[in-house]
Specification:
heterodimer, A: 566 residues, ABC transporter transmembrane region fold, 3 domains, 6-stranded mixed sheet, 65% helix, elongated, B: 555 residues, alpha/beta, Rossmann fold, 64% helix
């Protein structure tokens, strides 16, 4: 992952140059102060000369301070900017990678984890590329400029001062490690708690109808206490950091007082030196103090790099072959070779079978959302695995049973895959029998749905999804039980509209409501991941060997008769 | 809802802190000592420079060195315990608040959950509560400590030389103004960046959660472009905030040097007239540095505190959500003694989900009666109010008018526990908790007969130890619903309610459930809502809901 940083080496170099400027000035300023203090101590010059030379010094001081402020702003802006740039690059890389991975990958991962990779883990890279590198450069430059100056003033004092640095590093490393491991546990616990609340709220109607509130409260309390315990461990480790920093800073002054003081008494050290030295100590304390943070950031980046790498190196298992073919048009047929099934262009197909018989998986396989080695599926005599996925998916779309709506307006949800006018949006909403519902929402078509808006019922969601699919109008449309939550009489209206709008296109209905597909050109019956019966409704009922369909149908028709009676 | 003043919110927070009053007051008492131990250090240097260093007295110098060491050690101990006590107490208070919020949440009526998206409520109990810790332990307490430090530093400076002290204080004014100016522009651009970030994150989340839809609709490339644009906007917004931040820190540095310049300039003037000692100048150089530190943080801290109040306000809003459905907890075991010809009675029930004048009634004078042992079917169009009946019967909602009775007892008279163990509801949409199948069926209830679950386990081809993922991601919708059935039948509730419970399952599974239902008919009362007629063909009576009223039909 180095390339994300090395790419910006020129900017880092420029930033470093500015930092050298800043630190040289920062080293120069105490010299000026020393000079002025020594002048103030000097009784042998006249007041006028004293005043004049001090004024000169102060003017130089002011000018250097201004220059320093300018350089400081520049250096921070450049290097923090690189951090942001790295964040931008990484987010882009991860998103563009994720969006092409097959859905199965997302089923094996928690959504929250993936989001946290793009947000939190990328953030630690930003912290490294900006804040951490800025401070590492700044500290290195400050030390290499200021320490020689300190050495010049008094070498014994400087050695003793520098010996404090490793002590501090040992302490900080120790506590940072402790903080890091506790912080991780706290984050985990926090994740668990919000996960718990989320589950609880999603199932609140079940919890209430089964009187589970008290049990849930007890479970929550347990989690809450665990979180507190983890927090207390973390706080214990964290409490040491700031007092230790302060002690080390103060120890610097004790050394100055003791060693420097003795030198002053022995006359090898002027009071101006004493003051300048105290300012140098102040200068170096900040770089030392940030060491702790730097160490934590570097730790964090190591963990984050692993997690990011894991995602980026996860190759899409469903991807284009190198010489993938573009398919521009669907001309003839879809063949399921191993199943001995041919679906012709313009046909209406019913796909039925008991739960778990593999209907949805078959649909996903046709669209290559799922790959299955045995499935030999051909479109216009080309194996779909040889086709460019993108071009295949332009031809085939699925409306799933569990519909996902994006958290935007109803209109945008309908026009999700395409650019269409408001009239067209309304036309498709009408075809999906959703137009009657619109006046019930405060903002009509502009009403926001989903997580940040209102919650639609299962039937309403399904109708939006159907309108969306009709808007995209693919050559092959698979409706995977997409009418299941809709009342029968509305469902049959929608069905009529779908068939009318898709007259010369192929539509595959996966359903448990057999009346829907009674007039289909072909009905495929699935059992145990195989198509076991096929034919028209009439053929299936007449042929003695087709018992699964018959069984399903007899149940269904008996209730229709019953319904007619009551 | 009334907007609460900061004072009221502060009082709310204090009420949570009340149990820890003694600890908190104790910390307040040691504050001055830690402040003094910290600010005395430059003073000691001054005394040493002007005393032993001038006179060349090594013994006396050692005295100051020891004194200094003592101050450091003392400050370390006090500072450490202060941080530990404040932060651990804050965390305990936060734990209490979190618990209180969750308990309150569990008591809220369903209408609350209809109005509020889950994500928002989760944020209340997690991020907002965390924000409180940052704001009050990190923000408020630090401000108090900073203010103490500023006061002790100024006192020492006045004691050493009040004239120089005035000069420094004079410089505090522009520092504070610059600090708050830059901070303001920083905050503004930062806020802008956060808005952009949350847009970016929400787009990201939707694409991850809805990945299959994105791919099913072939929108991957289009969404890549949208993400890129949003990512760029975020980047640009950040650039401004980096700029403001860089200006701020460089500006503060500049001012602290200018203050040193003027200190020396003034020292020169004073020194010439009244012989100012070098020790004083050195001490003041240090005080100047330490004094600016808390002041430059001050406005930052106020921002933190302000966001704490925002969080507190949200929390108090949640806490003041009314528990509009009150439980009659005093009454237990009313039903065993109740005697009535009818198991369920709906008597002129009027209900709408929204109390607003213009919103339409869902039920308008609904009345019907059910005898024990009957199998009742409820039919009607979507939105006719079929499920509403169940929600009223289980007291997830309360009717505006009319009464509902079980065995002649108004359900308001019953405790939730008694009411909800009397009936078992199988909802249209189920919910699977992460855990094994057993815990999902048992749900920690009393009086459960797990033997009843056996036929369902066979149908599911699973055993009790099968692990289920949350949101049922590893099972089908049909299987989820079978689990939902098992949940209901293992309880000994005499009333079994099916709320469009077979909508998502295939006919074979439905046939199985039909068979099971037939068995329960013998000793249970069944109330079934269905739009599939198969489910209700054996019903004794059919109640058709139309225009918010009931039409009884005998099957």
């Amino acid at each position: 992952m180095h390339k994300y940083f090395t790419k910006y080496w020129k900017s880092y170099l420029l930033g470093s140059l500015f930092l050298i400027g800043v630190n040289s000035l920062a080293a120069f300023i105490p010299q000026l102060i020393k000079k002025s203090i020594d002048l103030l101590q000097n009784n042998s010059i006249s007041t006028e000369i004293l005043s004049k030379s001090i004024n000169e010094i102060l003017l130089t001081l002011l000018a250097s301070a201004l220059l320093m402020a300018f350089l400081r702003t520049k250096s921070r802006h450049i290097i923090f900017g690189i951090g942001r740039q790295i964040e931008f690059d990484l987010k882009k890389a991860i998103f563009n990678h994720l969006i092409h991975l097959e859905p199965a990958f997302f089923e094996s991962k928690k959504a929250g984890d993936l989001i946290s990779i793009i947000t939190n883990d990328v953030q630690s890279f930003r912290a490294l590329g900006g804040f951490a590198i800025l401070n590492i450069l700044n500290s290195a430059i400050a030390f290499s400029i200021i320490v020689p100056l300190m050495w010049q003033i008094n070498s014994t004092l400087t050695i003793s001062f520098l010996s404090l640095v490793p002590i501090l590093i040992i302490f900080i490393t120790y506590f940072s490690k402790a903080i890091k491991s506790h912080q991780q546990k706290v984050t985990e616990m926090l994740g668990k708690i919000s996960h718990f609340i989320e589950q609880n709220l999603s199932g609140i109607h079940i919890i209430k109808s089964y009187g589970q509130e008290e049990a849930e409260i007890a479970r929550f309390q347990n989690q809450n206490n665990n979180l507190l315990q983890e927090y207390l461990h973390l706080i214990k480790a964290r409490s040491f950091i700031s007092p230790i920093m302060k002690v080390v800073a103060s120890l610097g002054f004790i050394l100055l007082l003791y060693i420097g003081g003795k030198s002053v008494i022995e006359n090898s050290f002027s009071l101006g030196d004493f003051a300048a030295y105290s300012l140098y100590i102040e200068r170096l304390i900040w770089p030392i103090a940030t060491l702790g943070w730097l160490i934590t950031i570097i730790y964090r980046v190591q963990v984050s790099a692993k997690r990011i790498q894991e995602v980026l190196s996860r190759e899409a298992s469903i991807k284009d072959l190198e010489d993938a073919l573009e398919i521009e048009e669907f001309r003839e047929s879809i063949e399921l070779k191993s199943q001995g099934v041919t679906i012709n262009k313009g046909q209406i197909i019913g796909l039925v079978g008991p739960i778990g018989s593999g209907k949805s998986i078959l649909a996903k396989t046709i669209m290559r959302l799922h790959d299955c080695d045995e499935a030999e599926i051909f479109i216009d005599n080309i194996d779909i695995k040889k086709l460019k996925i993108d071009s295949l998916r332009k031809i085939i779309n699925i409306v799933p049973q569990e519909t996902f709506l994006f958290s935007t307006s109803i209109a945008e949800n309908i026009a999700y895959g395409v650019d269409i006018s408001q009239e067209e949006i309304e036309k498709f909403a009408k075809a999906a029998c959703f137009d009657q519902e619109i006046p019930k929402f405060d903002n009509g078509y502009e009403t926001v749905v989903g997580e940040r808006g209102i919650t639609l019922s299962g039937g309403q969601r399904q109708r939006v999804a159907i309108a969306r699919a009709l808007a995209i109008n693919p050559v092959v449309l698979i409706l995977d039980d997409a009418l299941s939550s809709i009342d029968n009489h509305i469902a049959s209206k929608i069905l009529k509209n779908i068939l009318e709008l898709r007259k010369d296109k192929t539509t595959i209905f996966i359903t448990h409501k057999l009346q829907i597909i009674e007039n289909a050109d072909q009905i495929l019956v699935m059992n145990n991941f195989k198509i076991v019966e096929q034919g028209t409704h009439k053929e299936l009922l007449e042929d003695e060997s087709n018992f699964i369909y018959k069984q399903l149908w007899n149940k269904d028709s008996s209730l229709i008769k019953k319904g007619a009676k009551s | 809802m009334n907007k609460k003043s900061d004072l009221e919110l502060f009082k709310l927070i204090l009420s949570f802190a009340a149990p820890y009053k003694k600890t908190l007051l104790g910390t307040l008492l040691i504050l001055p000592f830690s402040s003094i131990a910290f600010s005395i250090q430059p003073f000691l240097i001054q005394k040493a420079v002007d005393g032993p260093l001038k006179d060349g007295n090594i013994e006396q110098l050692m005295f100051f060195v020891y004194l200094f060491l003592g101050a450091i050690a003392f400050n370390f101990c006090v500072h450490l315990s202060q941080i530990w006590i404040i932060n651990s107490t804050a965390q305990k208070i936060i734990t209490d608040i979190r618990q209180k919020l969750f308990e309150h949440l569990e008591k809220l009526p369903m209408s609350f959950f209809d109005r509020n998206p889950i994500g928002r409520t989760v944020t209340r109990i997690t991020s907002d509560v965390e924000q409180l810790t940052d704001s009050f332990a990190g923000g408020l307490v630090s401000v108090v400590i900073d203010i103490f430090n500023i006061f002790t530093i100024i006192s020492f400076m006045i004691y050493i030389n009040w004239k120089l002290c005035l000069v420094l204080i004079f410089f505090l004014i522009p520092v504070t103004i610059t600090a708050s100016y830059f901070q303001k522009s920083y905050r503004k651009s930062n806020l802008n960046a956060r808005t952009k970030l949350s847009a970016l994150n929400s787009f990201l989340q939707q694409n991850i959660v809805g990945i299959s839809v994105v791919q099913m609709l072939n929108c991957a490339d289009k969404n890549k472009k949208i993400f890129d644009k949003s990512n760029q906007e975020y980047f640009k917004a950040n650039d401004k905030s980096i700029w403001a931040d860089s200006n701020f820190s460089a500006g503060i540095e500049l001012i602290s040097i200018i203050s040193i310049v003027s200190l020396i300039f003034l020292s020169k003037e004073i020194l010439i007239q009244e012989a100012l000692s070098i020790g004083v100048i050195i001490a003041f150089l240090q005080y100047a540095q330490t004094l600016f530190e808390p002041i430059r943080n001050l406005s930052d801290r106020f921002t933190t505190i302000q966001s704490g109040f925002t969080a507190a306000e949200r929390i108090s809003e949640l806490l003041s959500e009314e528990v509009s459905i009150n439980e009659n907890t005093s009454a237990t075991h009313k039903l065993p003694n109740a005697q009535s010809e009818y198991l369920i009675e709906f008597d002129d029930v009027w209900f709408k989900y929204n109390d607003k004048e213009e919103s339409p009634w869902i039920l308008s004078g609904l009345s019907f009666k059910v005898k024990a042992g009957e199998f009742i079917a409820i039919i009607g169009k979507t939105g006719a109010g079929k499920s509403t009946i169940i929600k009223l019967l289980t007291r997830l909602y309360e009717p505006q008018r009319g009464s509902i009775r079980i065995l002649g007892v108004d359900i308001k008279e019953l405790s939730f526990k008694e009411l909800r163990s009397f009936l078992a509801v199988i909802h249209q949409d189920s919910y699977i908790f992460s855990g094994d199948l057993e815990s999902n069926i048992h749900l920690n209830r009393e009086n459960i007969d797990m033997n009843q679950a056996k036929p369902f386990l066979q149908a599911l081809k699973m055993d009790l130890k099968t692990e289920l993922n949350e949101r049922a991601s590893n099972i089908s919708a049909g299987e989820e619903q079978v689990i939902n059935f098992a949940r209901a039948v293992v309880s000994k509730a005499p009333l079994l309610i099916l709320d469009e419970a077979t909508a998502k399952i295939d006919l074979a599974t439905e046939a199985f459930i039909q068979d099971e239902l037939e068995q329960y008919r013998k000793d249970k009362t069944l109330l079934v809502i269905a739009h599939r007629l198969e489910t209700i063909k054996h019903a004794d009576k059919v109640i058709a809901i139309e225009h918010g009223q009931a039409n009884l039909q005998v099957n």
